[in-house]
Amino acid sequence: MSPRPDRTAPCGECGRGLSRVGPGVACPTCGAINYVFPTGEALLHLTSSLAPLDPAQRLVEHLGEMGLGCEVETDRALYIPVYLFVPEHGDPIWESAWDDLAARFLRRITLAPSTLTTFKEPADGYELVRPGVSPRRAGSRLKQRGLSSRGYRRSALVHLPAHRLRYRLADRRQVALALVDSIYTENPPRPLEESLRRQRLFFGAATAGAILLTTLLIGGWAGALLSLAEGLGGTVLLARQSRRP
User: Fold this and answer.
1) Which of 63, 83, 94, 220 could form a Cys-Cys staple with 68, CB 3.0–4.6 A?
2) pLDDT value at position 161?
3) In whole numbers, what is the pLDDT of the chain averaged over residues?
4) Phi, psi of 24 (to 5 degrees)
5) What is the pLDDT of residues 5-41, one digit of tens each?
């Protein structure tokens, strides 16, 4: 027997009371499909039929365009939950309903609401993720972002087919999210940025120290020529170390 909400949940379309909890709850009056929360809240429940293709390969190609090589370690196919708020004017606003490290990418979604369809059960191989963020908490986040004062003509819970990728870049593990035709990653990739910064500091300090020592010990034209050679050598070494793999 399906659980019932703590109180009657009004249909997100017509307001009729709904008696079940969970995804894909059909309204007996208007037929709209809702997601009903145990707290008695209900939102229209939508999805997208646009699933990512070859996400692991696309991640490798995406990083490869930046001159970076990576090793994909895991690839999980998920139906991830995200709140959609459509204002009277302006672009749609996306707020994650998913408690995960990769959820921070969801605010960057550019998917048009017109491409969404009524929720259907996930395709084979995809795992349905239940919302880990309540509608009230999502509303609080909108307030923190300074967006709560907008007039919203529509709100919904959307389950999007996505792939959560864990990969290794240099000596660090990171996560990426493949969604429709986009790959979301750290920008710029942290390992490269931090590695180059350390390399520049190391070689810069080493070269400066060598030049100073040579000048103090030898001096004159001989010292100047040796210092010039050391400076050029340090620059070449830095260039080689900074070259992207």
Assistant:
1) 63
2) 96
3) 82
4) 65, 40
5) 656 799 999 999 998 999 999 999 999 999 999 989 9
In terms of pTM, does the model score above 0.85? no
Q: For the chain, what's the residue count?
A: 245
* Closest alpha carbon to 24 in 14, 16, 36, 12: 36
CB 52 within 8 A of CB 178: yes
Q: Residue 38 phi/psi, 5° resolution? A: -60, -25
User: Between 153 and 23, where is the model more confident?
Assistant: 23
- The pLDDT, as a whole number, for residue 191 is 47
236 has a pLDDT exceeding 60: no
CA distance 56 to 189: 17
Rounded to 5 degrees, φ, ψ at 113 are: -55, -30
Which residues sit opposite 225 in a β-bridge?
Answer: none
